[in-house]
Specification:
This protein is mainly α and 196 residues long. It has one domain: Serine Threonine Protein Phosphatase 5, Tetratricopeptide repeat, CATH 1.25.40. The chain is 72% helix and 0% strand. It has helices at residues 2-19, 45-59, 63-76, 81-93, 97-110, 115-127, 131-144, 149-161, 165-178, 182-195. Helix 2 (45-59) runs antiparallel to helix 3 (63-76), helix 4 packs antiparallel against helix 5 (97-110) and helix 8 runs parallel beside helix 10 (182-195).
């Protein structure tokens, strides 16, 4: 079971996160609004432009170009939590998990309520096989965004890796109940079949 869950976790993560992105390269789909950057004197339009261009590259899977754009946005506005979080996601796409964790940590430091930053960090920990941290981060995602089906999916996958079958089944069932994304529902059903 563990091998199948890890492979699914690593293969499905970029696919699900990119196909279910909620505008702005945000990989945490929820029914409640995510923290998004708003124009302020500390958030110049040039930084917003780099953030948007980075999101376009992110959606296209052009990780290096996305990283460069997010880096430009961060240089213009070092307090832009979403730029760190989105750059973390781009690093996940490159399987550079330590870089992703560092950026997600910075995003969380700047905005402790940014659910997608916890999701990105949890995904990076999953990529490294550190499933205790994955569970903790996706539990925080679920705390911040209780209707986040993807949060339940990834926490369920981490529970499966830990051999916590009942918790995994519960999370996959909740994922299916909340999701409207066919790919996510199919992946959760597959995981349920392997657990039962």
């Amino acid at each position: 079971m563990k091998t199948k869950a890890v492979i699914l976790f690593l293969l499905v993560a970029p696919l699900l996160l990119s196909t279910m992105a909620c505008g702005g390269g945000q990989p945490m789909p929820t029914s409640t609004p995510q923290a998004t950057p708003t124009p302020t004197p500390a958030f110049p339009s040039a930084a917003q432009g780099h953030l948007e261009q980075g999101n376009a590259y992110l959606d296209a899977g052009e990780w290096d170009k996305a990283i460069a754009e997010y880096t430009e946005a961060i240089e213009l506005d070092p307090n832009l939590a979403v730029a760190y979080s989105d750059r973390a996601y781009a690093y996940i796409g490159k399987r550079e998990y330590d870089q992703a964790i560092a950026d997600a940590n910075k995003a969380i430091e700047l905005d402790p309520n940014l659910a997608m930053a916890y999701g990105n960090r949890g995904t990076a920990y999953g990529g490294k096989g550190q499933f205790d941290q994955t569970v903790a981060d996706f539990s925080k995602v679920i705390e911040l965004s209780p209707n986040d089906a993807l949060g339940y999916f990834y926490r369920g996958a981490a529970y499966a890796e830990q051999g916590k079958k009942a918790e995994a089944i519960s999370d996959f069932e909740q994922c299916i109940a909340l999701s409207q994304e066919p790919a996510l529902i199919q992946a959760a059903n597959y995981m349920l079949q392997t657990l039962r």
